[in-house]
Design brief:
Blueprint: H1 12-17, H2 24-27, H3 32-42, H4 47-54, H5 73-85, E1 91-92, H6 105-112, H7 115-118, H8 130-147, E2 151-152, H9 159-173, E3 181-185, H10 190-203, E4 207-210, E5 223-230, H11 241-249, E6 253-258, E7 276-280, E8 296-300, E9 313-317, E10 323-327, H12 334-337, H13 350-388, E11 392-393, E12 401-405, H14 410-419, E13 422-423, E14 425-426, E15 431-435, H15 442-456, H16 495-507, H17 529-532, H18 538-541, H19 553-570, E16 574-576, H20 582-599, E17 607-611, H21 616-624, E18 628-632, H22 642-651, E19 656-662, H23 674-683, E20 687-692, E21 711-714, E22 734-736, H24 770-802, E23 822-825, H25 827-833, H26 837-846, E24 853-854, E25 861-864, H27 872-893, H28 911-915, H29 925-929, H30 949-954
Length: 968
């Protein structure tokens, strides 16, 4: 413990004062005694006094949060059980992109429910992310093999938004046809069409639905791209080679939205000539979750990888020449592209992609094929049985879905099946769709057949799959090519092997279950077990997003309650939880603003003002909402430059649509002039968008809906405890004032145009993880949430104060305080020594820490956010590590050791490097591996040394490398 460090042990008096069952005392890391010691260092008598000094009085909320009293963990779990019982589980045969599946228990227990996986952050520090990067590379390889395309990304948000991303991708990647329509297969999933049409309307390009069976000649204009669905929403499987060739002949690019399981039996899109394949990996072991979170995918042809949206895992080498994984082509990330962005994808669905990849590892190609053949057999049995009863089928080539013509009686058949505990798809008034899946049994098929025959007064009998002739996948479309040939998909057949593989990968990573992750802007706080517990209960996890409302009472009660609580917390009037990422929340908010202006006849308002310091997705979202980005300069103190704001407003008179403000600012301070900024934009006729990424510094202290905001998105995966999952799931609800409520996202499954543009495939987005945030709010109550915010302010200011003599804080607000995070400025140290912020980030690994946010929002800095969940002992451990590193920097600056030979530049240190008999470094093994007070007993060793990112980009490899490449 360094000289200025306070005593961290709680006093007996403090322990006696804790209330039994007060969850906030579990959530907030520093107890009363530790907080007192920290306050003494910062210079304030109480948390209230600190908050009063830090938060401008002009924005402080006057009343306590109007929330119910906090519950205990037992009470919250009991209430969740009661809500779950209000949902009705059923045999889900609705299909339409969502299918029941069996999550192998070894994957459920050791990924989905394992904090080693779900508390990890996005793998921007690859040396401590090798486990999840390997799992994501498995996902990419799986998708590449199944789609027959050489490059796949590490997941997207859902199939509908992936289709929209594919359309935008074709518009920018097509070198032959620059302008023209996107033609869409009439067999596309309805929710995908709705999301695509919403995007196209904002960006001003045509989407034309056609029956591809009649060829493309029916559309005479220029065609940029064609989107096909395989199998179609009706279940039909078609040979797409000819229509793909026809599209190529007209200069168009082609996307196939393909079901991954079907691709074990149906020829791969890439081998049929497609440029792009998209879809969902949900049925690879990921529960229905009432609509999400589910990992979508996108794969593209060779040469198109630099236009690919989302993250891409690649293979490079570390400083010892060993293969090492990292995120590739980082210049595609939207925090760099900003107003030039063509996608706003930031977080995706890493955790769910990992589950899907391990489902493929668990089953292998033979196991997946057996599942697909069983599903197909049930569909053939169903088709033959219903045709034998005299019913007309819309097609006779199903993979898993049969659609039956039942003029004027469709609803009766669906109701009869529901009485038997089976949900079918009502396809208008005259047809019924039935989708088989991994959980389907022969008894279920018999019940479905009975629902038809008894309702319609027909004679019929069950035809077994073996006897169902004439309903096979057409020979011309059957898959002949191999897939999943890499040894990883053949090596883990026993549960023992699978369990050890998962443990090996998780041990390679550094997640929140092992150490503080002090990432500024990312709010890596406690994801309590009680909050997580309900998400895998069948009454929540096995509900189809299009199930009848009477079966989802508990879900909708939970969701409406959470929306009401979030409205009360933020000071807005209405909340929609549909957006399934923060970036999608931004887009939904901006589309609401756009819709509002159009409804008022202000179609000329298309300028979105964005401060230079804003999150990169802000500008990207504005572009996707059809707005023109105008950047507002940042003043020297980190605030919005008032003079430049005035100039930009005047230069765009009558055109201002909105301003996007991050508050507290991206620089980690409460700007005192935020009300002035809001009033200036309102006076110019614009709306104010307040980015809620930093809401952890506001809850209980200030409400953006009351101090000038018209709309905000929130990050439930930050402030409200949904874990990051290694890069997703995220949830980005959008909160609005009353006048924008009519423009909140609508239901994509029922949308046919209108101001309520949907942004996600399902009505409630990633509903499956909402019990986490619901539980957090109920456990904390208004007072607990406010204490958490105050504790976060205290932790950040404590770190800033304790490190002031070693690393100056770049920006401070009133009273010299920061908000919930502080930017440590290393630029002067770098100028004197050559040691970079990246060197410090890599050296922190040797101390057992995930690095703070590197080089954002200011190059050459580290942004630190301890959060309220870290106890004083862990905060002090981080502070000591940073002080120790400063001593190493000074040694370089004073020429006591050359930078290139120093432990800073040669970090992180692997166990292999430390025990190497040829150790010849300018410092001891102990200094390299166990710096400062690093524990000898619980030491984390990274599996690889410093990775060559640039070299990996020059030699791009984005699928599993051969096993022999890892041999020494």
């Amino acid at each position: 413990m360094t000289a200025n460090a306070p005593e961290t042990h709680p006093s007996d008096e403090t322990l006696r004062g804790q209330r039994v069952g007060d969850f906030s005392l579990r959530h907030i890391g520093a107890d009363e005694s530790a907080q007192k010691a920290m306050l003494d260092v910062v210079g304030y008598e109480s948390l209230d006094a600190l908050a009063d000094a830090a938060v401008p009085s002009t924005i402080r909320q006057e009343e306590a949060l109007a929330l119910e009293d906090p519950r205990t963990e037992a009470e919250v779990l009991a209430e969740l059980r009661a809500l779950a019982k209000k949902n009705q589980t059923a045999v889900q045969m609705i299909g339409q992109g969502y299918y029941d599946t069996i999550t192998p228990p070894v994957l459920r227990r050791n990924i989905l429910e394992d904090p080693a996986w779900y508390t990890a952050y996005t793998p921007y520090q690859p040396e401590i992310s090798q486990g999840r990067l390997e799992a994501l590379l498995n996902f990419q390889t799986m998708v590449q093999d199944l789609t027959g395309l050489p490059i796949a990304n590490a997941s997207l948000l859902d199939e509908a938004s992936a289709v929209a991303e594919a359309a935008l991708f074709m518009r920018r990647a097509n070198k032959k046809v620059k302008e023209g329509a996107i033609l869409v297969d009439s067999e596309i999933l309805p929710q995908s069409l709705a999301v695509l049409q919403g995007r196209s309307e904002a960006l001003g390009f045509d989407v034309v639905v056609i029956d591809v069976a009649n060829g493309l000649a029916q559309y005479e204009g220029d065609v940029v791209g064609l989107v096909l669905q395989q199998p179609g929403v009706s279940g039909v499987v078609r040979d797409l080679k000819d229509v793909i060739a026809e599209a190529k002949g007209r200069g168009a690019m082609v996307t196939v939205a393909a079901d991954l399981l079907s691709l074990t039996l149906i020829e791969a899109p890439g081998l049929q000539g497609a440029d792009v394949a998209v879809g969902s990996a949900q049925r690879f072991g990921v529960p229905l979750f009432f609509g999400g979170p589910h990992a979508a995918y996108m794969a593209v042809a060779k040469g198109l990888e630099r236009s690919l949206p989302g993250r891409l895992v690649g293979v490079s080498v570390d400083d010892a020449g060993l293969p090492a994984y990292r995120l590739a082509l980082q210049t595609r990330e939207q925090h760099i592209r900003r107003e030039k962005a063509t996608s706003n994808i930031c977080t995706a669905q890493a955790l769910l992609a990992i589950v899907a990849s391990m489902y493929a590892v668990y089953h292998g190609p033979d196991g997946l094929t057996r599942i697909a053949e069983r599903v197909h057999g049930h569909a053939r049995s169903l088709a033959a049985s219903l045709a034998g009863a005299g019913l007309e089928l819309l097609h006779d080539a199903p993979f898993d879905t049969v659609t039956v013509s039942v003029p004027r009686r469709a609803a009766d058949v669906v109701a009869a099946a529901k009485e038997r505990g089976i949900n079918l798809r009502l396809a208008g008034t005259d047809a019924v769709g039935i989708s088989a899946d991994e959980t389907t049994t022969e008894a279920v098929i018999a019940d479905v057949v009975a629902a038809f025959t008894e309702t319609l007064g027909l004679e019929g009998e069950l035809v077994s799959a073996d006897a169902a002739e004439g309903f096979e996948i057409p020979e011309s479309t059957r898959r002949e090519s191999e897939f999943l040939t890499h040894p990883i998909f053949h090596s883990h057949r026993s549960e023992t092997q699978m369990l050890r593989y998962l443990r090996k990968l998780s041990d390679r990573d550094l997640a929140l279950d092992r150490t503080m992750i002090p990432l500024g802007s990312c709010t890596m706080k406690l994801n309590a077990t009680a909050e997580m517990e309900a998400i895998s209960w069948p009454e929540f996890a096995s509900i189809h997003p299009f199930a009848p409302d009477e079966q989802t009472v508990g879900w909708r009660e939970l969701i409406s309650g959470l929306e009401d609580d979030l409205a009360a917390i933020t000071g807005y009037d209405r909340v929609s939880i549909q957006p399934n990422a923060g970036s999608q929340g931004e887009l939904a908010g901006l589309l609401a603003i756009r819709g509002y202006h159009l409804a008022n006849g202000d179609s000329n308002r298309d300028v979105c003002l964005i401060p230079a310091s804003a999150h990169g997705t802000n500008a990207a979202s504005a572009v996707l909402a059809g707005m023109r980005v105008v950047v507002v300069a940042t003043a020297e103190d980190g605030t919005i430059d008032a003079a430049d704001l005035t100039a930009k407003i005047e230069a765009n008179e009558g055109r201002i649509a909105a301003i996007m403000i991050t508050y507290p600012s991206t620089h980690g301070v409460y700007d005192g002039d935020v009300r002035d900024v809001c009033e200036a934009v309102h006076a110019a006729g614009g709306q104010v968008y307040i980015d809620g990424a930093n809401m952890n510094a506001l809850v209980g202290l200030a409400q953006p809906g009351k101090f000038g905001g018209d709309v905000s998105h929130l990050n439930l995966h930050k402030t409200f405890c949904i874990p990051h999952g290694g890069g997703g799931p995220g949830v980005g609800p959008v909160a609005v004032r009353k006048h924008l409520a009519p423009f909140l996202p609508g239901d994509a499954n029922a949308w046919h145009g209108g101001a309520d543009v949907p942004v996600s495939a399902s009505r409630f987005g990633s509903a499956g993880v909402l019990p986490i945030s619901w539980a957090y709010v109920k456990l904390m109550g208004g007072a607990g949430l406010t204490r958490a915010t105050q504790a976060a302010l205290l932790a950040a200011n404590y770190v800033s104060k304790r490190l002031a003599d070693y690393y100056p804080t770049l920006y401070t607000g009133q009273s010299g305080l920061v908000a919930h995070e502080c930017i440590l400025d290393l630029r002067e140290l770098t100028a004197k020594s050559g040691v970079t912020a990246e060197d410090v980030a890599k050296r922190l690994i040797d101390y057992g820490f995930h690095a703070p946010t590197l080089a954002f929002p200011v190059a050459g800095t580290l942004m630190v956010e301890p959060t309220e969940s870290e106890d004083l002992g862990e905060i002090e451990r981080f502070i000591e590590a940073m002080i120790s590193i400063r001593a190493e920097i000074d040694a370089v600056a004073h020429h006591e050791i050359d930078l290139e030979a120093s432990p800073l530049r040669r970090s992180p240190h692997t166990a292999a490097a430390v025990v190497d008999s040829s150790w010849d470094r300018a410092y001891s093994r102990e200094e390299g591996a166990f710096p400062g007070t690093t524990s000898r007993q619980d030491k984390y060793f990274p599996p690889v040394g410093r990775i060559d990112g640039a070299g990996g980009d020059r030699n791009l490899v984005c699928s599993c490398p051969p096993i022999e490449s890892f041999e020494n």
